[in-house]
Amino acid sequence: MNYRIKDISLADQGKNQLEWAEIHMPALIKIQKDLEREKPLKGVRIAAVLHVTKETGVLMKTLKLAGADISLAASNPLSTQDDIAAALVKYYDVSVFAWKGESEKDYYDNIKSLLESEPQIVMDDGGDLHAFLHENGLYGKVFGGTEETTTGVVRLKAMEEQGVLKYPVIAVNNAFTKYLFDNRFGTGQSAIDGVLRATNILIAGKTCVVAGYGWVGRGIASRLRGLGGRVIVVEASPLRALEAVMEGFEVMNMRDASKIGDLFITATGNIRAISKEHIANMKDGAILANAGHFNVEIDVEGLRSMAKSRRIVRPYTEENELQDGRRIYLLADGRLVNLAAGEGHPSEVMDLSFSNQALSIVHIYKNRGKLEPKVYDVPNHIDEQVALLKLNSMGIEIEKLTEEQIEYSKQWKYGT
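The structure corresponding to this sequence follows.
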């Protein structure tokens, strides 16, 4: 088994972390037990580019017990938990190519290493693996894949529209039991956790600017308000901006918000949501963090070009002193703050996302050769199965329709 990780001696610590995560991922563990018994993925070669966290470790173990051969690389240079990487290698025979603090060259070299296994199914978080396979014509043996996050789905949709997508992909991000919970409650909590670990600031009383009001932005804005922050939303979509207003948030453009914000968190999925021009407006002590997948939302190069000096004042907190003496603080190099400066989402919410992943992988394999090269939503029966598993694990019993109610919902004749 090939692998490249930081330190195999961290494996026991990682195994403990995996076991802790499993306690809080009951839906996935139920699926894991079923798949271990049935072995529906026996001999299937899977390559995954995901954040190497304890929750991902539980997913990898689940697929391994289902019979798959797995290779794993990180979907962000700073998101790997090195003890998890070690545990997956030592105890679960997963070929891992990942460590925290990879260079850009390391990052892509590790993705290349996955392809030595000639994968048949690929799993991605952000679209880099899918893009690499297509750009280099290496998709020949792949008969399907999945995508975990909004950014990757956008890229895959563009590939589909341009007619270059060569295999079917299930957009796990689009499952109700993913984006309504992972994006909103998961990122809403973990992004702020990353900010607090890096800075230990008090949110109460701060003017907090959230760029983007998709499901991630909604979650962050809600949690900041819950902690006593005065929250301003910056949004380009009139529909989302109106929604933010109706939710009671102040809405303005970044030009105006940049003059008054204390803490800025980007969640747009787009480039330079915070530009040099915005940074030039900011007050002394402003803190910049990114919760989007790629480190393009804050103009990091622009900020550093404006600074007369830079220093690390705390782990993952970089002070940039501008020419006039103002200090602007950049967290985690502008990368995903929840994973670079924290541990990512709580296990409980990843239970939903990764249950979708596991069942979608099985669906892809069982339907190999039958699906066109398109982006598909998670089948509704999988989405509902995951929700029901989660509710059952929480001891919640929901209502069941009677036969009369089922028949009534199908008719069209009866009115008032």
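The chain has a mean pLDDT of 97.
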